[in-house]
Model the fold of this input.
Amino acid sequence: MKKAYHLSTCSTCQRILKELKDRNFLLQDIKNEAITEQQIEEMYAYTYSYESLFSKRAMKFKSMGLKEKNLKEEDFKNLILEEYTFLKRPVFIVADEIFVGNSKKTIEALNNVLENE
Done:
C-alpha cells in the first residue's frame, strides 16, 4: 500500500507530489477528509511517537499558547485529531515504512524506497 496524507493548499505538498508523479499513491487531503483515530494510530505504530507526527511550525501552535505548555504524547495525538494543520506533512506510507515531513533527507529516503520497489 502507498498512501499520502497531504494538504492540497500547501505548495510544498503539491511540489513533492508532483515530483513523485505516477507512483499510484492513495491520496488523502487532510483538510477535506479528516484523519481518523485509526489512521493516526497506524502512523504511531511506525513512529512510536505522536510528537514526531506533530508540526510545531503550525500557526495555531503559537496562537493557542501550546509552545509554553508541557505537552504529553496523548496531547499531541488529540491535537492532531482536532486540527488538521498540526499533522507534519506530507506523510507517506510505503509498504512497511513511514516518511514524515518535507525535509530533503526524508524525501530522498522516500525516493530511494520507491526506486527499489
